[in-house]
Amino acid sequence: MEVVDDSMNRKFLQEKKRGGWRAITFILGNETLEKLGSIGVSANFMLYLRNVFHMEPVEASNVYYLWMGLTNFAPLLGALISDAYIGRFKTIAYASFFALLGLMTVTLTACMPQLHPPPCNNPHPDECDDPNKLQLGILFLGLGFLSIGSGGIRPCSIPFGVDQFDQRTEQGLKGMASFFNWYYLTLTVVLIFSHTVVVYLQTVSWIIGFSIPTGLMACAVVMFFVGTRFYVYVKPEGSVFSGIARVIVAARKKRNLEIPAVDDGTVEYYDPPVKPGVLSKLPLTSQFKFLDKGAVITEGDLTSEGAPAHKWRLCSVQEVEEVKCLIRVVPIWSAGIISIVAMSTQATFIVFQAMKMDRHMGPHFEIPAASVVVISYITIGIWLPIYDRLLVPSLWRIREFRFTLLQRMGIGIIFAILSMFTAGFVEGVRRTRDTAVTQTSVFWLAVPLILMGLCESFNFIGQIEFFNSQFPEHMRSIANSLFPLSFAAANYLSSLLVTTVHKFSGTKDQPDWLNKDLDKGKLDYYYYMIAGLGVVNLVYFWYCARNYQYKAGPQSEDIKEEKPFLDI
């Protein structure tokens, strides 16, 4: 008996040693190196398509948007596979190998002369030889592998990190809240490095510039497996979508039932204990009462053992409330798309703006055009520690106030609008002031880039934490796939807007707004149009946020602030 007890004690101590910030170190390290690999390729990819594959700006932007759309849509499928079948660890592991294969394939398109069009010294790349079908096919194959890799890594990396904290404790909630900020801070460092060092190396040699991200991705795979003995593993709970479908079907079958607007005890609901591994028991809420009918017990619904006789006719209160969580989040999710459209618009066209501006720092060094966006990432890198370590604790000490997640997201939307307005103003100034002799300084772009950095600091981090906090634990991969899904929707919407404006904004005598020669186009009008969409979106977000009901249970903003978030 003592031997059995000793064995159980050792197993308990081993489990207790798992998780926490030690496991997070490996997860963040793997995520950082993986992002260095993937972002290192995408950071300057527009110029790669323009200068190596000889695509026009609109054509290159559409290829980029469609690839980014696929890359950001794939996490929804990755989340389904993770939550329903193989779990987060295996999903990240398999996806990492696909990402590495994709980087190797894209690198080959730069290394092998047969896999890209012949070099062309013509200052107008659109007048050079077009890529053939084989060259485009290999390139798109590599991009496809990268999308598959992102589809597995992106929806699981943050939830896998959150799994390392016990959210039933205040320390666990603090650690989780701080993890989101540190996650985005490491991402910002990666973005700065990719848009400076890696982009500069790509201006020297595309082969070197792509080989380094590929090597870093290989290191990410190794580091992820090194930390296996420290991770907390959460088993998959089955398909989330089948549970959602069962709730809808059960509610429809009982649509003629009459239930009170407020639970008065006259109706019996099926409310068994939650499954092992589910930390939060969701109480019955008054929103979306039509779904509650799926959990009402009627004659013949239960077996003699108290289990549902027909799973498609009776669901638990927990299952009903999980569907309500998803329905509540969808309007807030949709309101974040326009802010991402603003960011992707700026990231795409600011490269072409920078190429028309004076990028010299001193007499001998010229900033690569794709490196200009690093100003946004520096803003994030400076602001996040200030927000996490100074602003949040100070506001709590002075007024016991903390921004809610929805308030942070709303502030970010406002910054996105301001960024688009100032970007339009700067482009108007550049187009009217530039001559054959003088060029506007590229540092005029600093203001819209700083504003966009503040938008990301408030809105994007707020979205990540919001989606992860408003779903039960076993749905967290699905929740986390909503953020990249916002990027997918934004990329496809951006592609539609670019194509439509390019086609209809010009006439026979007047070039279109997005003309390949920015001096003849009206890019500032396009920025103003995006800003106008942002104003409409802000009103829509305000309406959705005003009516939003947070998930029952502890929230990060409910933590009593005694000191800054968990020291690492």
Report how far apart the termini are: 41 Å
Report low-confidence residues grouped into runs of 5 or more: 1-15, 558-568
Please state how the strands of the largest beta sheet are arranged side by side.
Answer: 1-2
Largest sheet: 2 strands, antiparallel
Number of helices: 16
Got a strand count?
2
Average pLDDT score = 82
Bulk shape:
globular
What is the succession of H and E elements?
Answer: HHHHHHHHHHHEEHHHHH
Could you estimate the helical fraction of the residues in percent?
Answer: 55-70%
- Rg over CA atoms, rounded to whole Å, is 26 Å
Protein structure class: mainly alpha
Q: Could you give a quick summary of the protein structure above?
A:
The protein has 16 helices and 2 strands. It is mostly helical.
Explain what this protein looks like in three dimensions:
The chain is an all-alpha fold and 568 residues long. The chain is built from 16 helices and 2 strands. The protein has helices at residues 2-17, 20-42, 45-51, 57-111, 133-162, 170-204, 206-226, 240-253, 289-292, 317-335, 337-355, 374-399, 405-433, 446-469, 476-504, 523-546, and strands at 360-361, 365-366. The chain has a two-stranded antiparallel sheet. The chain starts with a helix and ends in a 22-residue tail after the last helix. The model is unreliable at 1-15 and 558-568 (pLDDT under 50). Pfam families: PTR2. This is Protein NRT1/ PTR FAMILY 2.12. It is found in: Membrane.
